[in-house]
């Protein structure tokens, strides 16, 4: 049974979300503040966090940032902020998806299921493959990325994006293709969202994110992986 942490200071919203998720067979944990949410993530094995951004103690953005320092658990943000720059900030901090308030509980459940499905899908990449004489290693058996011998903490979407690209070195993918493979057919957001995930991924795996050697831009098309095996 998958465990979902719902973080929101409004009891009525938590009640609705809990009701819909439990009807679908999920176990739920509730938190009213950002600090209590962080405590839950540290102490319990949750599979996904539904995170409101307007919390009474610390912001949801800060909560997400702190979660990313200790865990790669998927984060779905609930936000009343509709501006594109606000959503980009959320993705930059490591959120996997966002739902704008007011929201449909059924849509929220569908998004939760989609995120969990993506994070648990097995890929066809070899269990362990290295690039540039071991500078970058993808270990799919443990779903772990190693850079210069140190484990790199990627979000589920960043991990899936890297694996999709690395499975097909030198192949150019359009943004729409990557959206489909990483987010699924039902994703209705802007395809440019993939640009922010690429930027985040480069910050973590590239020796110089401004001059990437692994995930390169194909101008007029999208992106491709160009690392050398070995």
UniProtKB/TrEMBL annotation:
Coiled-coil segments on the chain, per record: none
Record localization: Cytoplasm
Chief site of localization: cytoplasm
One Gene Ontology term of the molecular function aspect: transcription cis-regulatory region binding
Listed Gene3D superfamilies: 3.40.50.2300, 6.10.250.690, Winged helix-like DNA-binding domain superfamily/Winged helix DNA-binding domain (1.10.10.10)
Biological process according to GO: regulation of DNA-templated transcription
Name this polypeptide is given: Sensory transduction protein regX3
Organism: Aneurinibacillus soli
Designated gene of the protein: regX3
């Amino acid at each position: 049974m998958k465990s979902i942490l719902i973080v929101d200071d409004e009891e009525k919203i938590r009640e609705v979300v809990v009701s819909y998720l439990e009807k679908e067979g999920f176990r739920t944990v509730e938190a009213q503040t950002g600090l209590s949410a962080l405590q839950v993530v540290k102490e319990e094995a949750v599979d996904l966090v539904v995170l409101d951004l307007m919390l009474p103690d610390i912001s949801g953005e800060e909560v997400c940032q702190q979660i990313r320092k200790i865990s790669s658990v998927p984060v779905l943000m609930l936000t009343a902020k509709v501006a594109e720059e606000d959503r980009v900030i959320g993705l930059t901090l490591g959120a996997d998806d966002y739902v704008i308030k007011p929201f449909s509980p059924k849509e929220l459940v569908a998004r939760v299921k989609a995120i969990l499905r993506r994070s648990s899908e097995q890929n066809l990449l070899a269990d362990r493959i290295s690039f540039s004489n071991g500078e970058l290693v993808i270990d799919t058996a443990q779903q772990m990325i190693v850079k210069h011998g140190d484990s790199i903490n990627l979000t589920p979407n960043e991990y899936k994006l890297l694996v999709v690209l690395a499975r097909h070195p030198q192949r150019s993918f359009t943004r729409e293709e990557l959206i489909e493979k990483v987010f699924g057919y039902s994703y209705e957001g802007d395809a440019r969202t993939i640009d922010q995930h690429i930027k985040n991924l480069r910050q973590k795996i590239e020796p110089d994110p401004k001059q990437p050697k692994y995930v390169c831009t194909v101008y007029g098309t999208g992106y491709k992986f160009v690392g050398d095996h070995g």
